[in-house]
Every structure is written in C-alpha cells, then in structure tokens.
Design brief:
Elements: H1 13-18, E1 23-29, H2 32-35, H3 39-45, E2 46-58, H4 62-71, E3 74-82, E4 85-92
Parallel strand pairs: 1-2
Antiparallel strand pairs: 2-4, 3-4
Length: about 90
C-alpha cells in the first residue's frame, strides 16, 4: 500500500574508506547507468584474489557493462542470463 522513494548518491571513495585492505567480494545489483560509473572504484576496492558480481543489468546492456568493466580492469569469468536480465562474474586483472 505504501511506496517510498529513496534517492541515494554513492561516493566511490566510501569503498576504500570502509575497508582499506580491500574486499574479497563486491556484489552490485543495480541498473547499468548507475553501475558503470562505479566500476573503477570497484576494481580499486576488490582484492587481487577477489570477485565482483554485477547483476540487475538488462540483457541488451550486457556488452556495454562488460566493455566498461574490462576498461576498469575487471575480466568477465562467467555470465548468466535469465529472461531479460544479465549477471556477470568478474575477476580483477593482474
């Protein structure tokens, strides 16, 4: 019966402030327009042995996200599609 709209701005610096030694896993399930600008921060915040899971991406935007992730230093390891939704598993490039 009630819908609440919450607008949150994400400061990418927050990732390294929370855990300076890096994360083992980062999971983001948001639309690509929000996700793509954060990819370089995700790469900086994930450990070299860590993983990044990106979901909530429209299947038609998967190529754009994969290209942007590669440019940020994240390599696609595995992808999954379910209907119109796409999820990718990424590892940081050495």
């Amino acid at each position: 019966d009630a819908i609440e709209l919450v607008h949150v701005e994400v400061d990418p610096a927050w990732l390294t402030e929370v855990r300076a030694d890096g994360f083992d896993l980062i999971v983001a399930n948001v639309l690509s327009g929000i996700l793509v600008p954060l990819l370089e921060s995700f790469r900086a915040a994930v450990r070299s042995t860590g993983l990044v899971i990106l979901g909530g991406i429209m299947d038609t935007e998967a190529g754009e996200v994969t290209d942007a992730a590669a440019a940020a230093g994240l390599d696609l390891v595995r992808a999954d599609r379910e209907g119109e939704w796409w999820t990718g598993l990424f590892r940081p490039r050495d």
